[in-house]
Amino acid sequence: MTKSTPDPRDPLGFDDLLDQEELAVRDTVRAWCADRVLPHIADWYERGELTEVRELARELGAIGALGMHLEGYGCAGASAVQYGLACLELEAADSGLRSLVSVQGSLAMYAIHRWGSEEHRLRWLPGMAAGEVIGCFGLTEPDHGSDPASMRTRAKRDGSDWVLNGRKMWITNGSVAGVAVVWAQTDEADGGSGVRGFVVPTDTPGFSAPEIKHKASLRASVTSELVLEDVRLPADAALPGVRGLKGPLSCLNQARYGIVWGALGAARSCLEAAREYSISRVQFGRPIGGFQLTQAKLADMSLELNKGLLLALHLGRRMDAGTLRPEQVSYGKLNNVREAIEIARTSRTILGANGISFEYPVMRHAANLESVLTYEGTVEMHQLVIGQLLTGQSAFR
């Protein structure tokens, strides 16, 4: 048994479970965030805009963070655990930054990589991996979020072409994207029923992406509506590898896995801010970290954070082994985001009034996590996924 003093930032020795390549990836992303994001993020968030998004995307491409868990076409071919650690460090800086990377790699790039044609891959993936082309993923609609099967966006045949009409909502990267992966309903007469995906260059006539303003969360992130008005595409714009909801849901599973890790980055940032504050803040003649109630809060937050890290690592090892199931990702997304938002809220109580200041990251993370809590599957949807696993009964309808 070692007699060395435990690191309060890693009390369970989590780093001992990581190999040197995993630690190197984590440290690279952490250093980039410290240099390029942390000095500016409070200002970006307060302004509610990320005008530097294209520059940041190119820099993220340069360090291999975009589509990093994909193979070939300029992608890094990293492991699932390495990708998870990158998501953790990105979201420790800001959820909006992790969303940029997650939508680019786990949604838009993954859809093209997994379900696209070789022509799609060769045309789009190298530029996306380099951050020269930003992608977005059009699934959610104004009236259809948790129930994508009811989407109203339609793709109709017109000769050999496809013509798309519809609207998508809450689309990360939408107004800065060069390519959109859009999911639409098709009819039997149009070459196959059900949902199909389409690779849509955003300069196609009829496509527009007005940016959504006045957000109280994810303010350092580009969020848009997608409007498709008679968007005409050639026949080969359709993703050939999949039909039905299996396509978009497989992409969402990739993104949810990143969230399992990412939410813990926000939680870690909040906990560390609260811990440091408790040591320096003096009330009633002593640091508030010396009072039992404060220590109880810190202990509970550290416990939940480190349990979440062990769960994320377990899921990552399963993904690398090819044995991870979607229901298991639901366990991770449900638990880790729910605990992360509670850590953010409790950290705010330790900081008191200072907790609402952008001098500290806590309120910014708390507001961001309110979005993370419901996107890529609400709490209720993941509870029902797990409930179906436990009972064999579907309660979705």
TrEMBL record:
InterPro entries: Acyl-CoA_Oxase/DH_mid-dom (IPR006091), Acyl-CoA_Oxase/DH_mid-dom_sf (IPR046373), AcylCo_DH-like_C (IPR036250), AcylCo_DH/oxidase_C (IPR009075), AcylCoA_DH/ox_N (IPR013786), AcylCoA_DH/ox_N_sf (IPR037069), AcylCoA_DH/oxidase_NM_dom_sf (IPR009100), Glutaryl-CoA_DH_mitochondrial (IPR052033). Residues 243-388 form the Acyl-CoA dehydrogenase/oxidase C-terminal domain. Residues 136-231 form the Acyl-CoA oxidase/dehydrogenase middle domain. It comes from the Bacteria. Its cofactor is FAD. The keyword Oxidoreductase applies. Keywords: FAD, Flavoprotein, Oxidoreductase, Transit peptide. Pfam families: Acyl-CoA_dh_1 (PF00441), Acyl-CoA_dh_M (PF02770), Acyl-CoA_dh_N (PF02771). Residues 20-132 form the Acyl-CoA dehydrogenase/oxidase N-terminal domain. Belongs to the acyl-CoA dehydrogenase family. This is Acyl-CoA dehydrogenase family protein. It comes from Streptacidiphilus alkalitolerans.
